[in-house]
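>> received
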Amino acid sequence: QDQWTTLLSVDEARQEILKAFSPVETATIQIYQALQRVLAEEISAPFDFPRFDNSSVDGFALHINQKSGDSDLRFPIVGDIPAGSAEKLRLKPGQAARIMTGAALPAGADRVVPVEDTDFPYRDPSALLPEFVTLLRMPAKGANVRPRGQDVTSGTPILQPKRRLSPQDIGLLAMMGKLHVLVHRQPRVAIFSSGDELVPLGRRLPKDRIYDSNSPMLQALVEECGCLPLNLGIARDQPEDIRTLFERAVKKKADLILTTAGVSVGVFDYVRKILEKEGQLKIWRVNMRPGKPLTFGYYHSAPVISLPGNPVSAFVGFQVFVRPVLTKLMGMESDRRPIVRARLDTSIQSDGRETYLRGIVRKQ
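>> returned
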Protein backbone atom coordinates (compact mmCIF):
# COMPACT_ATOMS: atom_id res chain seq x y z
CA GLN A 1 0.00 0.00 0.00
CA ASP A 2 3.02 2.35 -0.06
CA GLN A 3 2.03 3.64 -3.49
CA TRP A 4 -1.06 5.28 -1.93
CA THR A 5 0.74 7.19 0.85
CA THR A 6 1.52 10.18 -1.37
CA LEU A 7 -1.55 12.21 -2.22
CA LEU A 8 -1.93 13.54 -5.75
CA SER A 9 -2.67 17.21 -6.25
CA VAL A 10 -6.02 18.14 -7.76
CA ASP A 11 -4.43 19.09 -11.09
CA GLU A 12 -2.35 15.90 -11.23
CA ALA A 13 -5.39 13.75 -10.51
CA ARG A 14 -7.58 15.58 -13.02
CA GLN A 15 -5.00 15.27 -15.80
CA GLU A 16 -4.45 11.58 -15.03
CA ILE A 17 -8.18 10.93 -15.23
CA LEU A 18 -8.72 12.96 -18.40
CA LYS A 19 -5.98 11.03 -20.23
CA ALA A 20 -8.15 7.92 -20.01
CA PHE A 21 -11.08 9.35 -21.97
CA SER A 22 -11.79 10.22 -25.60
CA PRO A 23 -14.87 11.72 -27.29
CA VAL A 24 -17.66 9.23 -27.94
CA GLU A 25 -18.71 8.35 -31.49
CA THR A 26 -20.93 10.54 -33.64
CA ALA A 27 -24.45 10.20 -35.04
CA THR A 28 -26.61 12.16 -37.47
CA ILE A 29 -29.83 13.43 -35.90
CA GLN A 30 -32.56 15.95 -36.68
CA ILE A 31 -32.17 19.43 -35.26
CA TYR A 32 -35.34 18.92 -33.21
CA GLN A 33 -33.33 16.58 -30.97
CA ALA A 34 -30.03 18.50 -31.19
CA LEU A 35 -30.41 20.99 -28.32
CA GLN A 36 -27.32 20.93 -26.05
CA ARG A 37 -25.68 18.27 -28.22
CA VAL A 38 -22.11 18.87 -29.34
CA LEU A 39 -21.55 19.50 -33.03
CA ALA A 40 -19.12 17.17 -34.83
CA GLU A 41 -18.97 18.98 -38.18
CA GLU A 42 -18.44 22.44 -39.58
CA ILE A 43 -21.62 24.07 -40.88
CA SER A 44 -21.34 26.61 -43.70
CA ALA A 45 -24.08 28.80 -45.11
CA PRO A 46 -25.59 27.15 -48.23
CA PHE A 47 -26.84 30.51 -49.50
CA ASP A 48 -26.85 34.21 -48.71
CA PHE A 49 -29.06 35.31 -45.83
CA PRO A 50 -31.25 37.19 -46.32
CA ARG A 51 -31.63 35.47 -49.68
CA PHE A 52 -32.99 38.65 -51.26
CA ASP A 53 -33.33 42.34 -50.50
CA ASN A 54 -36.43 42.71 -48.33
CA SER A 55 -38.34 45.23 -46.30
CA SER A 56 -37.83 45.45 -42.55
CA VAL A 57 -41.13 47.33 -42.02
CA ASP A 58 -44.70 47.55 -43.27
CA GLY A 59 -44.69 50.51 -45.61
CA PHE A 60 -44.13 51.61 -49.19
CA ALA A 61 -41.17 50.75 -51.41
CA LEU A 62 -40.01 53.81 -53.35
CA HIS A 63 -38.06 54.54 -56.49
CA ILE A 64 -36.94 58.14 -56.13
CA ASN A 65 -37.00 60.24 -59.28
CA GLN A 66 -33.49 61.61 -59.55
CA LYS A 67 -34.73 64.69 -61.37
CA SER A 68 -37.05 65.83 -58.61
CA GLY A 69 -34.96 64.23 -55.84
CA ASP A 70 -36.33 64.33 -52.30
CA SER A 71 -38.62 67.29 -52.98
CA ASP A 72 -41.47 65.22 -54.41
CA LEU A 73 -43.35 63.54 -51.53
CA ARG A 74 -46.38 62.32 -53.52
CA PHE A 75 -46.11 58.94 -55.26
CA PRO A 76 -48.53 56.93 -57.40
CA ILE A 77 -49.05 53.38 -56.02
CA VAL A 78 -48.56 50.75 -58.73
CA GLY A 79 -48.57 47.47 -56.79
CA ASP A 80 -49.08 45.51 -53.58
CA ILE A 81 -46.35 43.15 -52.31
CA PRO A 82 -47.23 40.78 -49.43
CA ALA A 83 -44.54 38.63 -47.79
CA GLY A 84 -43.91 35.51 -49.83
CA SER A 85 -45.21 37.05 -53.03
CA ALA A 86 -43.59 35.72 -56.20
CA GLU A 87 -44.95 38.56 -58.31
CA LYS A 88 -42.30 40.31 -60.40
CA LEU A 89 -42.72 44.05 -60.12
CA ARG A 90 -40.42 46.81 -61.30
CA LEU A 91 -40.82 50.35 -60.06
CA LYS A 92 -40.16 53.22 -62.38
CA PRO A 93 -38.73 56.50 -61.11
CA GLY A 94 -41.30 58.33 -59.00
CA GLN A 95 -43.42 55.20 -58.26
CA ALA A 96 -44.31 53.38 -55.02
CA ALA A 97 -45.66 49.96 -54.04
CA ARG A 98 -47.13 48.87 -50.73
CA ILE A 99 -44.88 46.25 -49.12
CA MET A 100 -45.13 44.08 -46.01
CA THR A 101 -42.35 43.18 -43.59
CA GLY A 102 -40.14 40.45 -45.05
CA ALA A 103 -41.42 40.87 -48.59
CA ALA A 104 -38.90 41.01 -51.43
CA LEU A 105 -38.02 44.52 -52.54
CA PRO A 106 -39.24 45.18 -56.08
CA ALA A 107 -36.71 45.96 -58.78
CA GLY A 108 -35.92 49.66 -58.95
CA ALA A 109 -36.79 50.37 -55.30
CA ASP A 110 -34.01 51.91 -53.23
CA ARG A 111 -35.72 52.55 -49.88
CA VAL A 112 -38.88 51.89 -47.86
CA VAL A 113 -40.98 54.42 -45.97
CA PRO A 114 -42.90 53.08 -42.90
CA VAL A 115 -46.69 53.40 -43.05
CA GLU A 116 -46.67 55.71 -40.03
CA ASP A 117 -44.60 58.21 -42.03
CA THR A 118 -47.31 58.49 -44.69
CA ASP A 119 -50.86 59.74 -45.04
CA PHE A 120 -51.99 56.10 -45.28
CA PRO A 121 -51.03 54.65 -41.85
CA TYR A 122 -52.89 51.35 -42.19
CA ARG A 123 -51.20 47.94 -41.79
CA ASP A 124 -54.23 45.79 -42.58
CA PRO A 125 -53.59 44.14 -45.99
CA SER A 126 -57.34 44.26 -46.64
CA ALA A 127 -57.35 48.07 -46.56
CA LEU A 128 -58.05 49.33 -50.07
CA LEU A 129 -55.09 51.18 -51.51
CA PRO A 130 -55.48 54.76 -52.70
CA GLU A 131 -54.07 55.80 -56.03
CA PHE A 132 -51.42 57.97 -54.39
CA VAL A 133 -49.50 58.06 -51.10
CA THR A 134 -47.98 61.19 -49.60
CA LEU A 135 -44.90 60.98 -47.42
CA LEU A 136 -44.70 62.92 -44.18
CA ARG A 137 -40.91 62.66 -44.33
CA MET A 138 -38.49 61.30 -46.90
CA PRO A 139 -36.42 58.23 -45.79
CA ALA A 140 -32.73 58.06 -46.65
CA LYS A 141 -31.51 55.84 -49.44
CA GLY A 142 -31.40 52.20 -48.24
CA ALA A 143 -33.62 52.95 -45.23
CA ASN A 144 -35.67 50.03 -43.85
CA VAL A 145 -34.13 47.59 -46.33
CA ARG A 146 -32.39 44.36 -45.31
CA PRO A 147 -29.96 43.72 -48.19
CA ARG A 148 -29.18 40.25 -49.49
CA GLY A 149 -26.36 38.59 -47.54
CA GLN A 150 -26.48 41.16 -44.72
CA ASP A 151 -26.33 38.47 -42.01
CA VAL A 152 -24.20 35.85 -43.76
CA THR A 153 -22.96 35.16 -47.27
CA SER A 154 -22.99 31.80 -49.02
CA GLY A 155 -20.08 29.52 -48.05
CA THR A 156 -19.29 31.34 -44.80
CA PRO A 157 -18.66 28.96 -41.85
CA ILE A 158 -21.38 29.65 -39.29
CA LEU A 159 -20.95 26.88 -36.69
CA GLN A 160 -17.78 25.02 -35.72
CA PRO A 161 -17.25 21.51 -34.34
CA LYS A 162 -17.06 21.08 -30.53
CA ARG A 163 -19.83 23.65 -30.08
CA ARG A 164 -22.74 22.85 -27.76
CA LEU A 165 -25.85 23.73 -29.72
CA SER A 166 -28.06 26.42 -28.20
CA PRO A 167 -31.65 27.34 -29.11
CA GLN A 168 -30.20 30.20 -31.18
CA ASP A 169 -28.00 27.74 -33.06
CA ILE A 170 -31.02 25.53 -33.77
CA GLY A 171 -32.84 28.54 -35.18
CA LEU A 172 -29.84 29.43 -37.35
CA LEU A 173 -29.63 25.87 -38.69
CA ALA A 174 -33.33 25.96 -39.52
CA MET A 175 -32.91 29.28 -41.34
CA MET A 176 -30.27 27.60 -43.46
CA GLY A 177 -32.57 24.68 -44.24
CA LYS A 178 -30.39 22.25 -42.26
CA LEU A 179 -32.63 19.44 -40.98
CA HIS A 180 -29.88 16.96 -39.99
CA VAL A 181 -26.62 17.57 -38.15
CA LEU A 182 -23.69 15.38 -37.14
CA VAL A 183 -23.23 15.40 -33.36
CA HIS A 184 -21.56 13.33 -30.69
CA ARG A 185 -23.99 10.95 -29.05
CA GLN A 186 -24.89 11.48 -25.42
CA PRO A 187 -22.40 9.74 -23.12
CA ARG A 188 -24.05 7.15 -20.87
CA VAL A 189 -23.24 7.52 -17.17
CA ALA A 190 -24.22 4.72 -14.78
CA ILE A 191 -24.84 5.98 -11.23
CA PHE A 192 -25.24 4.18 -7.94
CA SER A 193 -24.77 4.90 -4.25
CA SER A 194 -23.58 2.36 -1.69
CA GLY A 195 -24.33 1.96 1.99
CA ASP A 196 -26.65 -0.01 4.29
CA GLU A 197 -27.81 3.27 5.83
CA LEU A 198 -29.35 4.55 2.61
CA VAL A 199 -33.09 4.45 1.87
CA PRO A 200 -34.59 5.20 -1.57
CA LEU A 201 -36.96 8.13 -1.87
CA GLY A 202 -40.60 7.17 -1.39
CA ARG A 203 -39.86 4.55 1.26
CA ARG A 204 -40.49 4.81 5.01
CA LEU A 205 -37.40 6.16 6.79
CA PRO A 206 -36.29 4.20 9.90
CA LYS A 207 -34.69 6.20 12.71
CA ASP A 208 -31.19 4.89 12.03
CA ARG A 209 -31.23 5.51 8.26
CA ILE A 210 -30.96 8.42 5.84
CA TYR A 211 -32.42 9.06 2.41
CA ASP A 212 -30.17 8.62 -0.61
CA SER A 213 -29.60 12.18 -1.83
CA ASN A 214 -26.47 11.53 -3.88
CA SER A 215 -28.10 9.54 -6.68
CA PRO A 216 -30.76 12.18 -7.50
CA MET A 217 -28.17 14.95 -7.25
CA LEU A 218 -25.67 13.19 -9.51
CA GLN A 219 -28.40 12.29 -11.99
CA ALA A 220 -29.36 15.97 -12.19
CA LEU A 221 -25.73 17.02 -12.60
CA VAL A 222 -25.20 14.48 -15.38
CA GLU A 223 -28.34 15.66 -17.16
CA GLU A 224 -27.24 19.28 -16.75
CA CYS A 225 -24.02 18.40 -18.56
CA GLY A 226 -26.03 17.03 -21.48
CA CYS A 227 -25.31 13.34 -20.81
CA LEU A 228 -27.62 10.36 -20.31
CA PRO A 229 -27.82 9.15 -16.68
CA LEU A 230 -28.48 5.49 -15.89
CA ASN A 231 -29.58 5.42 -12.25
CA LEU A 232 -28.92 1.92 -10.89
CA GLY A 233 -30.11 2.62 -7.35
CA ILE A 234 -28.42 1.65 -4.09
CA ALA A 235 -25.89 -1.09 -3.41
CA ARG A 236 -25.80 -2.59 0.07
CA ASP A 237 -22.49 -2.93 1.89
CA GLN A 238 -21.95 -6.39 0.44
CA PRO A 239 -19.33 -7.16 -2.23
CA GLU A 240 -21.79 -9.16 -4.34
CA ASP A 241 -24.36 -6.36 -4.30
CA ILE A 242 -21.78 -3.83 -5.46
CA ARG A 243 -20.43 -6.27 -8.07
CA THR A 244 -23.96 -6.84 -9.41
CA LEU A 245 -24.45 -3.12 -10.05
CA PHE A 246 -21.02 -2.88 -11.69
CA GLU A 247 -22.02 -5.73 -14.00
CA ARG A 248 -25.34 -4.06 -14.76
CA ALA A 249 -23.52 -0.85 -15.71
CA VAL A 250 -21.23 -2.80 -18.05
CA LYS A 251 -24.22 -4.49 -19.72
CA LYS A 252 -25.80 -1.06 -20.27
CA LYS A 253 -22.59 -0.02 -22.07
CA ALA A 254 -21.91 2.87 -19.73
CA ASP A 255 -19.14 5.20 -20.86
CA LEU A 256 -18.50 6.02 -17.20
CA ILE A 257 -19.55 4.37 -13.95
CA LEU A 258 -20.09 6.93 -11.19
CA THR A 259 -20.47 5.76 -7.59
CA THR A 260 -20.55 7.37 -4.16
CA ALA A 261 -19.21 5.99 -0.86
CA GLY A 262 -17.33 2.75 -0.33
CA VAL A 263 -13.92 4.20 -1.20
CA SER A 264 -12.46 5.27 2.13
CA VAL A 265 -10.67 3.12 4.71
CA GLY A 266 -13.69 1.69 6.52
CA VAL A 267 -14.27 -2.02 7.05
CA PHE A 268 -17.30 -1.96 4.73
CA ASP A 269 -15.77 0.20 1.98
CA TYR A 270 -15.86 -2.45 -0.73
CA VAL A 271 -15.84 -0.39 -3.94
CA ARG A 272 -12.11 0.21 -3.83
CA LYS A 273 -11.41 -3.42 -2.95
CA ILE A 274 -13.48 -4.67 -5.89
CA LEU A 275 -11.67 -2.38 -8.31
CA GLU A 276 -8.30 -3.65 -7.05
CA LYS A 277 -9.41 -7.27 -7.37
CA GLU A 278 -11.41 -7.24 -10.61
CA GLY A 279 -10.03 -4.28 -12.49
CA GLN A 280 -7.45 -1.63 -11.83
CA LEU A 281 -7.06 1.11 -9.26
CA LYS A 282 -5.34 4.17 -10.73
CA ILE A 283 -6.03 6.91 -8.18
CA TRP A 284 -7.01 6.72 -4.54
CA ARG A 285 -7.23 9.89 -2.46
CA VAL A 286 -6.43 13.41 -3.59
CA ASN A 287 -4.92 16.30 -1.66
CA MET A 288 -8.14 18.29 -1.40
CA ARG A 289 -10.88 19.22 1.05
CA PRO A 290 -13.64 18.14 0.90
CA GLY A 291 -13.40 15.06 -1.29
CA LYS A 292 -10.07 13.51 -0.32
CA PRO A 293 -11.15 9.84 -0.77
CA LEU A 294 -11.67 10.12 -4.53
CA THR A 295 -11.07 6.95 -6.54
CA PHE A 296 -10.46 6.39 -10.24
CA GLY A 297 -9.97 3.01 -11.83
CA TYR A 298 -11.57 0.32 -13.94
CA TYR A 299 -14.04 -2.45 -13.35
CA HIS A 300 -12.79 -4.88 -15.97
CA SER A 301 -12.41 -2.35 -18.82
CA ALA A 302 -15.15 0.10 -17.75
CA PRO A 303 -13.86 3.39 -16.26
CA VAL A 304 -15.07 4.15 -12.75
CA ILE A 305 -14.99 7.33 -10.70
CA SER A 306 -16.00 6.87 -7.09
CA LEU A 307 -16.85 9.96 -5.08
CA PRO A 308 -17.10 10.25 -1.29
CA GLY A 309 -20.45 9.54 0.34
CA ASN A 310 -20.81 12.96 1.94
CA PRO A 311 -23.18 14.93 -0.35
CA VAL A 312 -21.08 18.10 -0.28
CA SER A 313 -17.91 16.12 -1.02
CA ALA A 314 -19.70 14.27 -3.83
CA PHE A 315 -20.89 17.55 -5.34
CA VAL A 316 -17.42 19.10 -5.20
CA GLY A 317 -15.83 15.95 -6.62
CA PHE A 318 -18.27 15.98 -9.52
CA GLN A 319 -17.50 19.59 -10.39
CA VAL A 320 -13.74 19.17 -10.12
CA PHE A 321 -13.28 15.76 -11.78
CA VAL A 322 -16.44 14.36 -13.38
CA ARG A 323 -17.63 17.44 -15.28
CA PRO A 324 -14.32 17.76 -17.19
CA VAL A 325 -14.55 14.05 -18.10
CA LEU A 326 -18.11 14.40 -19.41
CA THR A 327 -17.10 17.50 -21.34
CA LYS A 328 -14.35 15.51 -23.06
CA LEU A 329 -16.62 12.54 -23.73
CA MET A 330 -19.13 14.87 -25.38
CA GLY A 331 -16.49 16.16 -27.77
CA MET A 332 -15.98 19.61 -26.26
CA GLU A 333 -12.60 21.12 -25.50
CA SER A 334 -13.52 22.59 -22.15
CA ASP A 335 -16.45 23.73 -20.06
CA ARG A 336 -14.71 25.89 -17.50
CA ARG A 337 -16.85 27.70 -15.00
CA PRO A 338 -16.23 31.44 -14.59
CA ILE A 339 -13.81 32.43 -11.85
CA VAL A 340 -14.82 35.42 -9.77
CA ARG A 341 -12.53 37.15 -7.29
CA ALA A 342 -14.21 37.99 -4.00
CA ARG A 343 -13.29 39.52 -0.66
CA LEU A 344 -13.86 37.23 2.35
CA ASP A 345 -15.89 38.40 5.32
CA THR A 346 -14.23 35.81 7.55
CA SER A 347 -10.59 34.83 7.79
CA ILE A 348 -9.67 31.24 6.86
CA GLN A 349 -6.59 29.08 7.32
CA SER A 350 -5.16 26.46 4.99
CA ASP A 351 -4.04 23.01 6.09
CA GLY A 352 -2.11 22.53 2.83
CA ARG A 353 -4.96 20.94 0.90
CA GLU A 354 -6.72 22.55 -2.04
CA THR A 355 -9.92 23.61 -0.33
CA TYR A 356 -13.41 24.21 -1.68
CA LEU A 357 -15.50 26.17 0.78
CA ARG A 358 -19.21 26.83 0.74
CA GLY A 359 -20.19 30.45 0.83
CA ILE A 360 -22.63 33.13 -0.22
CA VAL A 361 -21.45 35.59 -2.85
CA ARG A 362 -22.87 39.10 -2.64
CA LYS A 363 -22.32 41.89 -5.14
CA GLN A 364 -21.35 45.24 -3.65
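>> The first helix runs from residue 10 to 18.
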